Amino acid sequence: MRQRTPRISSRTTRRRVVGSLAAALLCAAGLAAPAAGAETAGAKLPEAAGAKPPGATGAKLPGNLALTPPMGFNNWNSTHCRAEFDESMVKGIADIFVEKGLKDAGYQYVNLDDCWALPDRDANGKLVPDPKRFPNGIKAVADYVHSKGLKLGIYTSAGTKTCSDIGFPGALGHEVSDARQFADWGVDYLKYDNCNNQGVDAKKRYIAMRDALRATGRPIVYSICEWGENKPWEWAADVGHLWRTTGDISDNWSSMLSIMKQNLPLAEHAGPGHWNDPDMLEVGNGGMTDTEYRTHFSMWSIMAAPLLIGSDLRKATPETFEIIGNKEVIAVDQDPLGKQGEVLSSEDGRWVVAKEMKDGSRAVALFNETGTAQSIATSAQAVGLPDADGYTLRDLWKHKSYNTAGKIAATVPAHGTVLLRVAADGKWAKNPPAVELGLSGDPLVEAGKSAKLTSKVTNLGRTPARKVSTSFTGPSGWRIEAASPSTASSLRTDQTLSTSWSVTAPQGTAPGAYDLTLRTTYRSPAGTRADSVLPLTAHVVVAPPAGNSAVSDLPWMSTVNGWGPVEKDTSNGESAAGDGNPLTIGGVVHAKGLGVHAASAVEYYTGASCERFTAQVGVDDEKDPKGSVTFEIWADGKKAASTGVLTNADAAQGISADVTGAQVVRLVVTDAGDGRDSDHADWAEPVLSC
Fold first, then answer.
1. Residues 329, 333, 338, 343: is their CA dihedral positive or negative?
2. Tell me, what's the pLDDT at 625?
3. Is 551 left (phi over 0), alpha (psi -120 to 50) or beta?
4. Is 193 a catalytic residue?
5. Which end of the chain is least crowded, N or C, by CB within 10 Å?
């Protein structure tokens, strides 16, 4: 699969003529909403001071647009070109924006993606809306959206055709005429894609549309969607209001994580009126957990990214609305200072990202990339706050405030994010102290056997935590018992209550993941009751049998995969389960193994009973010769072996690692640092010797 082309199956041939290796990438997102105070629909553009006449090459962008990252909706990820994308849907989304409070939360643009037009222009060279989808035309839709106090966005491509395999007309060579049509219809936002660009210089193509939009006299937010191929963050600040920094996002953890990592280093290029765009939100589309979707929304907000809903709100769950409607998190994204958060640390997948806010506070994201709960910490000084006796620490997902003496820390669930707002505001003393609740030891449980774990409650506050009590619960039938005191009358600043626990799953419990909950309650000096809850995952595991075992015959603990599911004894195939082919590397077929797609990780419980892992590895033959990956073997969090970069041109390479004493072996495939295009990888003939 070409990870850069998730709009259609990678088996479908696309029409595009572009010269770079990344040309297969296409754009699935990018629509948004204007800042408070932005010009309203229908207003005329004032001439920017010192700007050249409208339409002249080099004309600057209009002012007062996208002063904060645009917020809105785009239909592509939820509908693609299916018949359900039509006038009724668009109007329904506008209604939901108003009815569900999303408009009040800041969402403003309702945007049409590809497939809104007929495949051919009319006799005068004009674009023609599809009469089945939009029987009343685009202007009627715009009028309806405007009547709700919202704005309308539209899509085309800076090429001869759009990105759909149907081949709708692009705007290359038609910039002035198309921009005029958009303005006459009342369009407020244009997403301009990069497909079928005929190899014409990107800057020239995007500047041409910028000048055409400006010449219309209508304020239109301009979203450059050239996939980051030509580093638009270096040249587009006076060309577009936002620019895509990456390929398309997909609705899975691996894709979201990869895109986030590409966008985070670009903080210096973002600011009011010119934003880094890591693509639309996938929240609510079903490919990630709610914990992962909260991370997605948190990290996009701290990156000052456009917040562009990509799920069908007509079918959205209450949990989806709770995530995308969190006004405290949205306020981080929409802060008028316009800073993108910067990475302070990321060691071993424990990320600290801090964003300066206009009021002097700091938004701080403690993000856990790993598959187990992790303690992540920083300090008020490290995030740029002045020295103070105490600080107010606001948890933006719990909607609760605490005080801290200066340490900012939390034990963060796997793939989770704790998003905080920290201030030296002099009001800290009225809040209860913050505590960090954590767990030492891996919750790996063999049915019928006791596992030993230790919980810790540490007071981070300037004031004492009193009447501290910790509880630990699990599924019905599990036995969880404290083996040491689980209460304390008081904890001073930095003092810790440690409790040993015995955790036993009933005999016969099936292997798999089970939810545990660690909770502590306490009181502030004024008697205010507070609590902290840490959701955990226990894995009921079975040690592999003695001797040599084909890994694909063993149960895994967890998997992460860049495209579709991990497959046993076949290649990765496409996005559906069971759609792989025979494992084939360099023309050689292998009967046993794992088919994966970068970025990937597969974990196995070895219970300290195995000595060695071996495999033949390489890029599977099923895709175009663009795949490039590395293979890594990890034993209890330490890298035990790795390959160099392997491509489709390489024969299978042997890899072997000493895993003696390891409880968990993790098989990792990376994208080799060049993106995930066609990175179908095989762990062929993988064997654990135990």
1. positive
2. 82
3. alpha
4. yes
5. C
Inter-residue contact 531 to 410 (CB < 8 Å): no
Q: How far apart are CA 344 and CA 350, in angstroms?
A: 10
Q: Which of 454, 538, 457, 540 is nearest to 501 (CA)?
A: 454
Q: Are strands 600-605 and 664-670 parallel, antiparallel or unpaired?
A: antiparallel
Catalytic: 395?
no
* Whole-number Å distance between alpha carbons of 503 and 473: 9
499 pLDDT more than 60: yes
Helix (H, G, I), strand (E, B) or coil at 12: coil
Choose, from 188, 193, 277, 442, the residue flagged as catalytic. 193
Residue 412's closest CA among 377, 378, 380, 445? Answer: 377
- Please give the pLDDT value at position 63: 72
The conformation of residue 159, written as its DSSP 8-state character, comes to S
Q: Are strands 417-423 and 362-368 parallel, antiparallel or unpaired?
A: antiparallel
> 320 pairs with which residues across the strands?
none
User: Which of 86, 113, 114, 248 is the catalytic position?
Assistant: 248
Average pLDDT in the chain: 91
Strand order in the sheet with 109-111: 275-277, 242-244, 221-224, 189-193, 151-157, 109-111, 71-74, 307-309
Distance CA 217, CA 521 (A): 60
Helices (H), 80-124: 87-99, 102-105
Number of Cα atoms under 13 Å in the Cβ half of residue 676: 28
Element counts in the chain: helices (H) and strands (E): 10, 39
| φ/ψ bin of 637: left (φ > 0), alpha (ψ from -120 to 50), beta (otherwise) | left
pLDDT value at 205 more than 80? yes
> Which tokens sit at 28?
């699935």
3-class secondary-structure state, position 379: strand
Q: Which two tokens stand for residue 13?
A: 């041939």
Residue with tokens 């497939």, as numbered in its chain: 115
Q: Residue 433 corresponds to which amino acid?
A: P
SS (H, E, C) 558-627: EEECCCCCCEECCCCCCCCCCCCCCEEECCEEECCEEEEECCEEEEEECCCCCCEEEEEEEECCCCCCCC
Question: Which has the closest alpha carbon to 292: 253, 326, 321, 319?
Answer: 253
Q: Which two tokens stand for residue 60?
A: 């600057």
Tens of pLDDT, residue by residue over 120-157, are 999 999 999 999 999 999 999 999 999 999 999 999 99
Which tokens hold the place of 540?
Answer: 């009921």
SS (H, E, C) 202-230: HHHHHHHHHHHHHHCCCCCEEEECCCCCC
Instruction: Check residue 51 and give its pLDDT.
Output: 35
